[in-house]
Amino acid sequence: MLSVLIPAYNEATRIGQTVLAVKRTLPEAQCLVIDDGSQDATAQRAEEAGADLVLRCPHRGKGAALQAGLRLATGDILLLLDADLEETAAAATALVEPVCRGEADMSIAIFPKTLNGGGFGLVVRLARWGIRKLTGHTFQAPLSGQRALKRELLEQIGGFETGWGAEVGLTVRALRLGARLVEMELPLHHRVTGRRPADVLHRAMQFYAVARILLRLWLTPHHRPEAATRKQGAP
Predict the structure, then answer these.
(1) First to last CA, the chain
(2) How many domains does one find in the chain?
């Protein structure tokens, strides 16, 4: 069975379309929305769109929301999606295919190169550099929240890191276990942050969170088996 975990914070204008796209494309999957203490109608819109379960949690960050959802997920394969994908969430379901076919233990979505974010790219560069230093592998989308993976792998990893560094922790710990990771470019779009003071503060907090997780991973060295990382379709 497949469980779809969608952490959401103040996404009332987008979560409905995201859930509808998931339910239309994967009608048999368990669709879980974890409302991370939103101050708007995110939870209500998710329920109206047909989410199988909407979990209301205190605002503790993305990683904590995913961990809360994991406790209620029943699938042996997990699909992680951001709440702001809207109708393009249907395309993200392609991430499940290489995991189901046994070709990868985790698949990661790359957004189209034409999708320009509004940030400065510092957090992405930090995450890419840190993962490369810790594992020897380079990822084009180190912070992508659109991922499919085996539940067994996530349990071996020990669950999700807290905060905004959840994806970095997943990647590093999976590679240290010898897991096979694949990146796939998919026709997705999402809300991008700009350069307003609030957006700059958001980026600074994200940078700090990723830096903390990288430091913690650096201080806990692990024997690294050979792990495969490639783009979908590569030999």
Answers:
(1) 29
(2) 1
What is the spatial distance between Cα 153 and Cα 58, in angstroms, rounded to a whole number? Answer: 27
Q: What is the DSSP string of 142-162?
A: TT---EEEEHHHHHHHTSPPS
Beta bridge partners of 78: 3, 149
The residue type of 30 is Q
Cβ neighbours for 226, distance < 8 A, ≥ 6 positions apart: 178
* pLDDT digit string, tens, across residues 100-150: 999 999 999 999 975 544 445 889 999 999 999 999 999 999 999 999 999
Helices (H), 26-61: 42-49
How far from 71 is each of 34, 155, 164, 199, CA to CA, in Å? 11, 11, 19, 32
206 with 123: CB under 8 angstroms?
yes
Give me the CATH number covering residue 128.
3.90.550.10
Domain residues for the domain of 80 are 2-231
| Pair of tokens at residue 140 | 């084009």
Q: What are phi and psi of 83, to 5 degrees?
A: -75, -15
Structural tokens at position 56: 């209301």
Q: How far apart are CA 118 and CA 55, in angstroms?
A: 30
The owner of tokens 């249907």 is: 90
Three-state DSSP state, 163: helix
Across residues 61-81, what is the average pLDDT?
Answer: 96
Q: What is the DSSP letter of 86?
A: G
